[in-house]
Design a protein that fits this description.
homodimer; Dna Topoisomerase Vi A Subunit, Chain: A, domain 2; 44% helix; two-stranded antiparallel ribbon; Recombination protein RecR (chains A, B); Rcmb_RecR_Znf (chains A, B); 7 strands; binds zinc ion; alpha/beta
C-alpha cells in the first residue's frame, strides 16, 4: 500500500507532538479518520486559532489573548508581592491553595544549561524590569524543587537581592525532587505560609 | 489565573486524541505555544486537509484520496487472491514481506461484541460483495492472532466458505496473542507461505 499524501502528512504532523512516536502518530491518524473526524476538525481549528490569538502577557509573561491578562489587571491583588513560577500550570496550582493574593511572573521554563536553556530563554530581563517597578517589595520564588528549579531559584534570588529586593522561597513542605503540578494543594498551602527568606 | 478561551479550547481538543489525558493535553498545548508554533500550524492544516480529502477506497476499504486506491488499480497484482486485514498498518506489514501479490480488503477494525463492534462496523457486507465478484478465488484471512482477531477470522471464514470461496488463514508462525504490527517481517513471511485452509 502506498500511503496517500494527506494521510502521511497528518501522521508526520502528529509525530511532532511531545511524547508521540511514529507508531502512536499513525494510530492517532487512523483513529481520527475512522472514528472521530469531528474531533480532528475541532483540533485543527483549535490549533490554528490558538497560534493566531495567543501571545505572552506583557506584564506576567503567561499565555493570554489580551495585552495584559486578567490576573494582572485584577485590582484586588497585592502588587507588592510577585510570585515567580515555571509554568502556567504551576500558577494554577498556587491559585488553588487560596494562600496567595499577589501577582505572578511566569518563566515558561527553568534554567537548564545541559539543554541549552539560559537566562534569555526564561525571560529574566523581563522579570527584572517587572520586579523593579518600584511597587514590588517581595519576590516569592516558587520554581519546582527539582535540581533545575532550585538552581533557577538560586540564580534569580541572587540577581534580585543584588537589586535590593526581598526574596523568599516556598518552604520545603514540597517534597524534595517534587514538581508542583503533582503535589496536593494542602502541601503547597503550607509551603506558601512557611515561605522562607532566600 | 483564568485560562484564555483559545488555550482552553486547544487543551480540550488535544485531550480527544487517543491516549492523551488532561495533564498531557495541557503540556502539549503549552509546548506548542512556547516552543513549536510552526508544528502546531502544520498539524492544524494537516488535520483539516486530511478530513477533507481522505475517504475509503471503494474497492479495498483502505484510506485514500482517490476513488480506487493505487494498490487496487495495480494491474500486476493477482486478482484471484484477496487478503483480509484489520488495519492499513497490517497491510503495510504484509507488503513488506514481499510474499503476497494479491489484493486486499481492510476491515478497519475487528469484531468485538464487548465494545459494541459488530459486523456492520467492519464492513462485512462490502467484503462479501468484494469477495464474490467472480474473480476472487481464495481469501487469505490475516487478522491478528488475538482472541478478537481469531474470532473475526472464524466468523468471516464461515461466511465466505458458505458462499463457495476457498478460505485460508496465515499459518501460526505468528506468535499466539501477537499483533501483526509488532511482528518481524520474516515471521510474517513464513506464516504467509505456510498459510493453511481455514
Ligand atoms: Zn499577566
Ligand atoms: Zn483499494
Amino acid at each position: 500500500m502506498k500511503k496517500t499524501g494527506s494521510l502521511e502528512a497528518l501522521a508526520e504532523a502528529l509525530r511532532r507532538l511531545p511524547g508521540v512516536g511514529p507508531k502512536s502518530a499513525q494510530r492517532m491518524a487512523y483513529h481520527l479518520l475512522q472514528h472521530d473526524r469531528e474531533a480532528a476538525s475541532t483540533l485543527g481549528h483549535a490549533l490554528l486559532n490558538a497560534m493566531d490569538r495567543i501571545h505572552h502577557c506583557s506584564s506576567c509573561n503567561t499565555f493570554t489573548e489580551i495585552e495584559i491578562c486578567e490576573t494582572c489587571q485584577d485590582a484586588q491583588r497585592d502588587g507588592t508581592l510577585l510570585c515567580v513560577v515555571e509554568t502556567p500550570s504551576d500558577q494554577m496550582m498556587i491559585e488553588q491553595t487560596l494562600t496567595y493574593k499577589g501577582l505572578y511572573f511566569v518563566l515558561m521554563g527553568r534554567l537548564s544549561p545541559l539543554d541549552g536553556i539560559g537566562p534569555r530563554d526564561i525571560y529574566l530581563e523581563r522579570l527584572i524590569a517587572r520586579a523593579t517597578d518600584g511597587i514590588v517589595q517581595e519576590v516569592v520564588l516558587a520554581t519546582n524543587f527539582t535540581n533545575e528549579g532550585e538552581a533557577t531559584a538560586h540564580y534569580i534570588g541572587e540577581m534580585l537581592k543584588a537589586r535590593g529586593l526581598k526574596v523568599s522561597r516556598l518552604a520545603r513542605g514540597v517534597p524534595v525532587g517534587g514538581e508542583l503540578e503533582y503535589v496536593d494543594a494542602g502541601t503547597i498551602a503550607r509551603a506558601m505560609l512557611d515561605r522562607r527568606s532566600a
